[in-house]
User: Fold these one by one.
Assistant:
Number 1:
Amino acid sequence: MFLTKPRRKRNRSRLMGAVQINNTSFFVCKNNEGQICLRTGKEENLQKAMLQKMIDLNPSIKKILHDYKIKPNIDTKTLKELAGGHMNETCKIAIGIHSMLSENLKSKISKNIIKEASMLHDLGKVLIPSKIINKPAKLNLKEREIMNIHSILGYELLKTQKINLETLELIRYHHQNLKHTGYPALNCDHNPSDIGVQIISTADKYSALREARVYRRKLSRIESILILYKEVLEGKIHKEVYNALIEYVKAFDN
């Protein structure tokens, strides 16, 4: 008689977001039992394995990369930088904006959807060439076109991860605006929450303006607010979302 080793149940993790704790980046994952766990951002092999699995599950990603002549390369350095800075900060601002809205607007989109979408909104940048991400000058038209597909790549990466459709739509359209002149273009198959897109988009922009980038200095609170106010006047940002941002900034952005 032969004894066989019992088969271990596969422990599949679903990516939920990324955070930084005490200068260490972590992936936020959910296991088979629905428990939330943290995986250290220093586990580069784990990062690449999780992201490669997402790519393998969705042929559309390879087609997009092929169409834009992008060599498939998972840039985990970019992911760690985003997780430890911009995505984490955007999440805090987005939740803050949501908390400052009127009850009527707040009821149109849940806090959990806003939290999850803002934590993951820039995941697609891990597939954008680092020479474009880190270019210390203005992008040319071709480079800008490639950069702009990061929101679609993020949507496609996460589409196979059992993430709420409303969250996916916010990730896909977090660079849209009220005039629908952002990217990618809206179509009849996609109908994201306008207020949800506005919250993520406004938080994303404010966070980006308040960070130093390779091509410009960090902007002050006043400078950042004035730039966004111009978009309010142009009809691109919802005035109540902008006012909620102002209330958040006065209370928490020192």
Number 2:
Amino acid sequence: MDWGMENRLAQLIQPDGRCFFLPIDHGYFQGPTSCLEEPGETIKPLLSYADALFVTRGVLRNAVDASNTKPVILRVSGGTSMVGEDLANEGITTSIEEIIRLNASAVGMSVFIGTKHEKETLMNLSKLVNECENYGIPVMAVTAVGRELEKRDARYLALCCRITAELGARVVKTYWCEDFEKVTRGCPVPVVMAGGPKCETELEVMEFVYDGLQKGAIGINLGRNVWQNPHPVPMIKALKAVVHKNAKPKEAYELFNELKNKGKK
């Protein structure tokens, strides 16, 4: 691995081998998502607790302070929307020159395996890897499932992760699922967890995060579970304790409640 690639990955993955990415890229296909209508305001109290920010170029330019020193993972795929015909019909939206100009530490794009656009998204990933490897920029593949949430099982996600790693992704972002060790065991590159099942409580979020970390994930890429929470700062601090201090779910939940109650005083 050349120095530039190694250096950028070291910015994202902390010395303990773990990472906590904060995604605010949802608007690229959802528009002004709830609690993300003003992304700059949303991240102000949160960014210092994250290891990196996953964001589109438009929001980065217009809503993120240029003095920010947190690494940026730039979302570089898009072209579809929630009101369109098919979320899987994405393309690459951002040139390598723009990626370098915006000083991104990594880039991320979605692949939609098992859809009619499977080949196109996998070829997009391959082309992106080809370009970014020339400049030492790691590519994070996002194993998207669009609206077909029932696909989030270990067999499917293990297939997706392995294929994207085989095509050159340096990191893979995927969903947590039951038997998550089957996903990480078959993937030769680091796996970062996105959301999991719909959770009713903060404790449930901490439980699936802890489970995934014990079963081979190196970290998390959680947005809505943080900034849509009524108490986002206590939530991000508690999750950070799970990721970087190996806090157990009940310990993290106790920390969340302690911080939440302090904020009410």
Number 3:
Amino acid sequence: MDHSRQSLPCIAIHSLTGCAGELLVILENLDKILPFVQVVSFPFAQSKNEMRPVDIALVEGSVSQPHDLEKLRAIRSSARWLVAVGNCAVWGCVQKSACRIWSPEQMVAAIYGEGSPIEALPSQPLDSHVRVDVKLSGCPINATQLLSVMASLLKDHLPYITHKCVCLECKLKENCCVLIEKNLPCLGPITAAGCGALCPSFGAACYGCWGPCEAPQMEAMATILSEKGYQTKEILGRLAAFGIPDELLSQASSAWAKV
């Protein structure tokens, strides 16, 4: 038995209802983490897994089913640090967006038929049910941010994660502004940085998949996009797609109603 590995901090990687994009990012970068940790659970990547106390639990996916909630509570009770990884875990993502239009019961009936025994819950991010120590947005997450978060937690302190807007990353990369120069419905001014301004760097509008930035200026965004001829329904649909919080969606709706 390798006693040196037994003394390493323990981590666990879990999945709830999501696309597993975050798990792929973690798996692709696991070799950079493994020298410093012992992985006790990662069902996506290994067959031998344990549910036991760990130093760090990384959880992707939203709470969309009763067994998700049961599993999440068990994870929270056994983890010192709980990290929500990805937009589903942090904001609720497309599942939460769908639940604004249809009830879980309607979706189950449409997919599995009336009278199906399958249970579903209104999709919610992790912090709607348990305490979350670190929120790592992304769809999927950024590998550099992941490694930075792990390094901080392994040194026993919470990481700094920027909540500045995507526009900052565009400026740093000297991108042309697709909102100003191409008249595209870019949500970069109200979306949190972290993706490296991926879409604008290729001439596409930001869709807001990283979630809202700190203190998003909804009224200014509404004024600019309405001046460019974009309709309220289209922009609110873009904002809602990745699970923006209800209060911010309400603010956006009120802002567009004024222009």
